[in-house]
Amino acid sequence: MELDRSRGGHEGLERTALAGAAECLEKQKLGASQRIRLRLFSVAADYTATAAWSAIDARQMDRASQLLGRALYLAGMAKDPTAEMRVWNSYAMLAYHRDQYAEAVDAAYAALGTTIARREPLYSSLAHARTAIGHSHLGDRQAAIRSLGHAQEALDKAETDGPRPSWIAFYGLSELMAMTAIVRDRIGDSAEAEAASHTALATIPGEFRRNRALATVRLALAQLHQRDVDQACTTAATVFSLMSGNPIPGRIRSLLGDYYRDLITLAPDASVTREWGDRYRTEWSRL
């Protein structure tokens, strides 16, 4: 998970996670107690979900779908509602990145229906935020805002000091604000999206380098959609510095592509558009 936070999804991370899952499944065949066997299934589910997440981040969507199916099976074998919630959360993200927004909402509702989400407000908050993103892309403004409200209310009730699985360590106020920026920009509230992005970037921990880069592109998009072209290009260019030293994960690459397309659409003849395009192509040639 530390590697994911700094570098993002890539083949090496996926291979390592799958190797861990395979080791767990070999160990559970050794005739240990049922309690230990269930725990090993649970760890295998988490490893497999990590591999699936890595594939999503690298935009290997078919591979991610296969791995999520396997992770959900293992979570069921483990009788582990936390692992199940993690998988449904990832299914919502997968559907979102495939532009299957109704399925994204359904998967988020499935995450909300898990035992852990009903019991623990932190997980409920994440599922509500994921639902809001789906609603915003379906054009349902009221449902999106309502889901954001539920996410904030649940987060306000969440225990912040207790132990939590490493995979959900990313989620808190900073990530909720980053997700709020996505929703607000999508429903046309770009000024609110910019404010949410600033809040997110002020609080995202430094080790979450990939998340900071994604929030930075979202900030640039919100600025661009307010026609603040020069500032938006300056903001977007900082992503290359943030991710220097490693290949840029597929999700960030795709989002930067979205930014460039919107930039060309909104300011096709501006000199800053040409300059940013040159920088964009130069950075891409190094990857």
Topology (SSEs and partners):
Elements lengths: L1 H6 L3 H17 L6 H24 L3 H18 L2 H17 L3 H12 L2 H5 L1 H17 L3 H17 L15 H14 L3 H14 L5 H17 L3 H14 L7 H17 L4 H15 L2
Helix pairs in contact: 2-3, 3-4, 3-5, 4-5, 5-6, 5-8, 6-8, 8-9, 8-10, 9-10, 10-11, 10-12, 11-12, 12-13, 12-14, 13-15
How would you portray this structure in words?
By secondary structure, the chain is mainly α. The protein has a domain at 1-79. Helices cover 78% and strands 0% of the residues. It contains 15 helices and no strands. Helix 4 (61-78) runs antiparallel to helix 5, helix 8 (121-137) runs antiparallel to helix 9 (141-157) and helix 11 runs antiparallel to helix 12 (209-225). The two termini are 23 Å apart.
What is the averaged pLDDT score? Answer: 90
Q: How far is it from the N-terminal to the C-terminal residue, by CA?
A: 23 Å
The count of helical stretches stands at 15
The helicity comes to over 70%
| Overall outline | globular
Order of helices and strands: HHHHHHHHHHHHHHH
Low-confidence stretches: none
Report strand %.
under 5%
- Rounded to an integer, what's the Rg over CA atoms? 19 Å
Properties at a glance:
287 residues; mainly alpha; 78% helix; 0% strand; globular
What is the compact description of this entry?
The chain has 287 residues and is mostly helical. The chain has helices spanning 2-7, 11-27, 34-57, 61-78, 81-97, 101-112, 115-119, 121-137, 141-157, 173-186, 190-203, 209-225, 229-242, 250-266, 271-285. The protein has a domain at 1-79.
